[in-house]
Write a structure and sequence with these properties.
Layout (H helix, E strand, L loop, with lengths): L11 H17 L5 H31 L12 H33 L2 E3 L7 H15 L6 E3 L13 E8 L7 E6 L7 E4 L6 E5 H7 L9 E12 L13 H12 L4 E7 L4 H10 L7 E4 L8 H5 L25 H7 L2 E5 L5 H12 L3 E8 L7 H11 L3 E6 L7 H14 L2 E3 L6 E2 L2 E9 L2 E9 L11 E8 L2 H15 L11 E3 L3 H17 L5 E6 L5 H12 L3 E6 L16 E6 L4 E2 L3 E4 L6 E5 L5 H5 L1 E7 L3 H16 L4 E4 L5 E3 L10 H13 L19
Parallel strand pairs: 1-6, 8-9, 11-12, 12-13, 14-25, 17-22, 19-20, 20-21
Antiparallel strand pairs: 2-4, 3-4, 3-7, 5-6, 7-8, 10-17, 11-15, 15-16, 16-17, 18-25, 19-23, 21-26, 23-24, 24-25, 26-27
Keywords: ATP-binding, Kinase, Magnesium, Metal-binding, Nucleotide-binding, Phosphoprotein, Transferase
Protein name: Polyphosphate kinase
GO molecular function: ATP binding; metal ion binding; polyphosphate kinase activity
């Protein structure tokens, strides 16, 4: 590259919207079972909510603050927001077309109906009336707006009904609002004949009985609306004497952040819209007229209806680890490094590791980082049990894990009560690394066992996130893990680590040096190849370095689920870079980094994506895969990802994604294949070391 080279970048936010479009495509895919399509639509809606609460809110804050720096794609905050609003309007339209024109007709074919009030039978009307008075009416709180009662603060993401009223003495219409209770089911099963299932939405029941909330007034008009607010926590860590208390206060504020989006029903009158606009601050992220039910996240609960397993993916129960043949986890790790591939291999191996450590008389200490854990976490229970058994247990609970802060505060307090030493994260940094250290006395010496992973210690998400992990008793890694925990719990400075690299200290430099090494090797004729699998690629300096590697002749293949700011296939810049995205029934979450290294291949796993926040503002971990069998297995995994023909999309220089050209290729759904691979390996019918060799291009080629 020369200094005059124009470096192309995609805008981060628009790239994320294209990711959500790929999720929406799964809701549109007729090959997916019907209820799975409903779930994908719910995920699309939930993703968009978070996008507004965090990303759009952040841009809005920049605009308010007068921030005028362009992003790597050359866009000012206001320009980004304008493009986002335009694209989201298209996405919302496509989302509701999918719901109304594809999914609702498909449900009808299965004798499942969402009924409008005007279509209820007499029997159903009687049922709905009883249901309203017995279940709904006691929970409702109608709020009228007048001189003595100002417009109420509308809760973030809550579904509400706006009403225009007129009483006998009213000259002008009166505005009122009713929140649709989130504590009640959003959809209600109606009595009906035959084997049909008919449902009505909660807001429709409230609407047809609205006169009971405003007796003596005429209902002139009513419509549902929903406000999305800025939910990004603003925490003054330096000024907070108690981080725990500061975050608890910030969580409460999240419900009332600045409004960034207004959604309202298609038939909402301009009078109602004007009233909401007059009484609310500006909706900088846009206003959206919705042709259907607001907040389609309710479809996730609809997905959980019993009796429809035939309309879902086949239930694949996670299998035992193919490398742990010994019930004693310590003996198994001592025999060789263990690699885990979730969710195909059960997360129970990790839970059992902590449980055995809690009960083992020879275990002296357990140290662990926790970022996101489940609501009824067996990991938490095992750690508490270990403390009760007299072991020294140290747990770093990251209180700043976005949208999991409240849950993590509860767990932190529970662990403290059990006798664990709890660390509430580091000032100015999120601790995102996944690290577990068990210190054990064996034959008058100390031995350290370490688990390092790409995913959270969460037994629930481990069932539908793809992640990888290594369990080892390598003494150098054990010593490094101890040094990392000493840094997290005290004032120890990381001087030098033998095997591990952490952010924000040296992880960025490590990956940069590995890329530069591939550049040198390619230029000297030894061939160069880089394969990265991650969730997001945003960091500008890393992208520039990958462009430089491409120009040097390094063959680069990137498997990036979500955001990608790198532009592939760009003339004279990224012609040697291919970017793929896989969106399927499982959430791709593992981070794997492969370097050809002139034939002496180096493979790493990490908790980090290549984003500024991961490399500079979080504690992250990069760890090597050194066992030869595990290296062969990872190479096989990478090759299979690159061979997927079912759920892969290819990114082009235009920013558009296209499906893989399947002509001449064997059909392959890589996520299904991995499950069958593990199952066949357990049945001893598969060659574990069978891999397809990489053939990196040399610079001359």
């Amino acid at each position: 590259m020369t200094n005059n080279t124009v470096y192309p970048f995609f805008n981060r936010e628009l790239s994320w919207l294209e990711f959500n479009t790929r999720v929406l495509e799964e809701a549109q895919d007729l090959k997916n079972p019907l209820f799975e399509r409903l779930k994908f639509l719910a995920i699309t809606a939930s993703n968009l909510d978070e996008f507004f609460m965090v990303r759009v809110a952040s841009l809005n804050d920049q605009i308010i603050a007068g921030y005028s720096k362009k992003d790597s794609a050359g866009l000012l905050p206001k320009e980004q927001l304008d493009k986002i609003t335009l694209r989201v309007h298209e996405l919302v339209s496509e989302k509701y077309n999918t719901y109304l024109r594809s999914l609702i007709p498909a449900l009808k074919k299965e004798d499942i109906y969402f009924k409008r009030p005007k279509n209820l039978t007499d029997e159903q009307r009687i049922f709905v009336e009883k249901y309203f008075f017995n279940q709904i009416y006691p929970v409702l709180t109608p709020m009228v707006v007048d001189k003595s009662r100002p417009f109420p603060l509308i809760l973030n993401k809550s579904l509400n009904i706006a009403i225009l009223l007129r009483g006998n003495e009213d000259v002008e219409p009166v505005f009122a609002t009713v929140q649709v209770p989130s504590v009640l089911d959003r959809f209600i099963l109606l009595p009906c004949e035959n084997d049909k299932k008919e449902f009505i939405l909660l807001e429709d029941i409230i609407k047809i009985h609205m006169d009971m909330l405003f007796i003596g007034h005429e209902i002139l008009d009513m419509a549902c609306y929903r406000i999305t607010r800025n939910a990004d926590l603003s925490i003054d860590e330096d000024g907070a004497e108690d981080l725990l208390e500061e975050i608890e206060q910030s969580i409460k504020k999240r419900k009332w952040g600045n409004a960034v989006r207004l959604e309202y029903e298609k038939n909402t009158s301009q009078e109602i819209i004007d009233y909401i606009l007059e009484e609310s601050e500006a909706f900088e992220g846009g206003m959206y007229r919705i042709s259907g039910p607001l907040d389609l996240t309710f479809l996730m609960k609809f997905y959980n209806l019993k009796g429809y397993q035939d309309l879902k993916f086949e239930n694949q129960i996670p299998l035992p680890s193919i490398t742990v043949q010994n019930n004693n986890i310590f003996e198994a790790i001592s025999e060789r490094d263990i690699m885990l591939h979730h969710p195909f291999e059960s997360f129970d191996t990790v839970v059992d590791f902590v449980r055995q450590a809690a009960e083992d008389d020879n275990v002296l200490a357990i140290k662990q980082t926790l970022y996101r854990v489940s609501g009824n976490s067996p990991i938490i229970s095992a750690l508490a049990k270990a403390a009760e058994n007299g072991k020294q247990v140290t747990v770093l609970v990251e209180l700043k894990a976005r949208f999991d802060e409240e849950n993590n505060i509860i767990w932190a307090k529970q662990l403290e009560k059990a006798g664990c030493h709890v660390i509430y994260g580091l000032v100015g940094l999120k601790t995102h690394c996944k690290l577990l250290l068990v210190v054990r006395r064996e034959e008058d010496k100390i031995k350290r066992y370490v688990h390092m992973g790409t995913g959270n210690y969460n037994d629930v998400t481990a069932k539908f996130y793809t992640d990888t992990a290594i369990m080892t008793c390598n003494p150098y890694i054990g010593a490094d893990a101890s040094a990392v925990f000493n840094m997290l719990s005290g004032f120890s400075q990381i001087q030098r680590l033998e095997k591990l690299d952490i952010a924000p200290v040296g992880l960025r430099k490590k990956i940069e040096n590995l890329i530069k090494n591939e550049i040198r090797n390619a230029k000297e004729g030894f061939g160069g190849q880089i394969i990265f699998k991650m969730n997001s690629l945003v960091d500008e300096s890393m992208i520039r370095l990958l462009y430089e590697a491409s120009e040097a002749g390094v063959n680069i293949k990137l498997i990036i689920r979500g955001i990608c700011c790198l532009v592939p296939e760009y003339p004279q810049v990224s012609e040697n870079i291919e970017v793929r995205s896989i969106v399927g029934k499982l959430l791709e979450h593992s981070r794997i980094f492969y370097f050809y290294n002139a034939g002496q291949e180096k493979i790493f796993m990490s908790s980090a994506d290549l984003m500024p926040r991961n490399l500079d503002r979080r504690v992250e971990l990069l760890f090597p895969v050194e066992d030869e069998c595990n290296k062969a297995r990872v190479k096989n995994i990478i090759n299979l990802y690159l061979s997927d023909t079912d759920k892969t999309r290819i990114l082009h220089s235009t920013g558009a994604y296209s499906r893989v050209d399947k002509r001449g290729k064997e059909p392959l759904n890589v996520q299904d294949y991995f499950y069958d691979y593990i199952k066949n390996k357990i049945d001893n019918r598969f060659n574990f070391n069978e891999i397809t060799e990489f053939k990196p291009r040399t610079y001359e080629e």
